[in-house]
Amino acid sequence: MKSRIEATYRVRGTAETIAARAEAIAVEQSVEMPVGIITDRHVRDEIIGRVEAITEAGEGTFDVRISLSAETVGEDPGQLLNMLFGNTSLHEDVTLYDLELPEALARLFGGPRHGIKGLRARVGADMRALTCSALKPQGLASDELAALAYRLALGELDYIKDDHGLADQAKSPFAERVRACGEAVKRAADETGHPTRYVPSFNGHLDMMRRQAEQSLAAGCDTIMIAPMLAGLSNCLLLAREFPELAMLAHPTMAGAARISPVALLGKLFRLNGSDGVIFPNHGGRFGYSPEMCRRLASSALAPWHGLQGAIPVPAGGMTLDRVPEMLSFYGPDVMLLIGGGLLSAGERLTEETAAFAQAVREYSHDRA
Amino acid sequence: MKSRIEATYRVRGTAETIAARAEAIAVEQSVEMPVGIITDRHVRDEIIGRVEAITEAGEGTFDVRISLSAETVGEDPGQLLNMLFGNTSLHEDVTLYDLELPEALARLFGGPRHGIKGLRARVGADMRALTCSALKPQGLASDELAALAYRLALGELDYIKDDHGLADQAKSPFAERVRACGEAVKRAADETGHPTRYVPSFNGHLDMMRRQAEQSLAAGCDTIMIAPMLAGLSNCLLLAREFPELAMLAHPTMAGAARISPVALLGKLFRLNGSDGVIFPNHGGRFGYSPEMCRRLASSALAPWHGLQGAIPVPAGGMTLDRVPEMLSFYGPDVMLLIGGGLLSAGERLTEETAAFAQAVREYSHDRA
Q: Which residue of A186, A189, B276, B306 pairs with B103 in a disulfide if CB–CB is 3.0 to 4.6 A?
């Protein structure tokens, strides 16, 4: 059982320089001062970062595993990120590649409150993939977004989320939008019999997000979206604790994934801090993640980890209806497929296209994969 | 007078591909859907991002200037960052290079509440550079940190800040540390007659930071440090509004400066959201910023900008006493010099070394530069 935090950095360097560079990172991420002048035995023995392993990773890079005292984190998620990558994020030759935590710390944070099981239960889904779409574009009025939500919900999607660009803007203020869209989706769900959920997107400071949580609950929502890198991980976890009835989907905006591996940030840190689902750019869409990266990210979000529930992977970013079988074959049933613009492109046939999406997922047999 | 937000991205590309790439970024950072299917006139005319200019920037890169409707931001700093760089932060070929705002938006956020003038007034300094050091290493007990603070304060520094790794840890809980260090620095200030300030470092979620603000005020502190990329910009600005008596120094941890130009993030966005001073890694220290980058960052934090006060540049990161004249010549008097480990290395002679630092800054004549 590990008692220390372990961060693995992928570092550009040479065989001659990497040992010294690894030591410098270990110092930067812990005491951040010349170690020779530290006299305190506890600091020397426990607090200074330790280089545990250095392995070649190809293409002029090395994986440097450094352990840090869990004591340096206390109980705060933001401080965990600070210890894992804070000042080192300012160095161009390093990415945070992976992390591991003591079980006690993982359990303290608690991870997903609802997880895949909770997200399936909300929409009465068996062991199948879930479906999702997005309300766009920003700049529409609340009633126009609600009309769109209604037409999407008639297609019997599982989840309909706000675009992450929808915030608390004059054209569709949060309180007005959540009422209008919540009501529209509820009305469609009553007609179809499928309990489609509307997922409002939170923004702003903690008190704003608390108000948004209250307004979401009042509008009958039980699932919301949050952007952890904008909100701050500490605020995310606090919301998960204060509103245990709300499931949270994490949006990757500002996740700067080129500097932190999505496997570590989305698959582990977002999950750790209460995200029940993690949205990420699927391979072959508008973003540059490789299939291998997507597979590792999904595995990371789902893998057994200190007894935490799994967070459902939500591949997105330019997906289309014709890719549904391929994505289901790739990810298996533990996935939520998110198609936004690809459905909206259907114009007048939006509900029909949406229904085809929902049906394709419901009827896909994972046995044949 | 600009009415739209302008973001400048530095994009890797070729003359053949850059126009299409620029359009794709403009769409990603605004409506995030195929524009051909958008029928709403307001969205088409105002909300879709506009490519305003593309210019070659050398070494296979282009500067792409895109304007966005201020309406998309509403009144929230986190949403501003979301609109400026959110999803595009996931693309490896783009950095956010610069930004410009409508004056109304800048004034709404308000920038530094105290600025350079306020930070000079607190320590009775004329038109000279300010001095600062840091309490380290983490892992020391509160009374040990307080003893260190006392010895630094006897050297008549202007500001003594917590290391950004000091949070709310068992070894030096925030409440205990702020009382002990606040008292120690006050005692030293009474002895020397120089009003040295202790600057505690905030961490955690918004409610924790509010408690830390109350505890800081109770301990006689009027200046604090915050890490905007951990706290969330929205929470930073709210704290600046709720505690107008506290001056805020911004720490760059997790600022991932390789993906957002420090000029834009530290010099503009941190300042915009209430930071009175911005700490950054000086050239020639442990980090890779160039002299040119440091000069541009300092200029950006100080430049006239929509009537906001200037934020004082705080170069740091491995600075030493022998560099003081060079740094003062480089930055002029509108600067706070921060030397941490370089002073702590003096061991038994800590107070004498600190006094030499404070004196070197006080006696430097900017006329000769």
A: B306
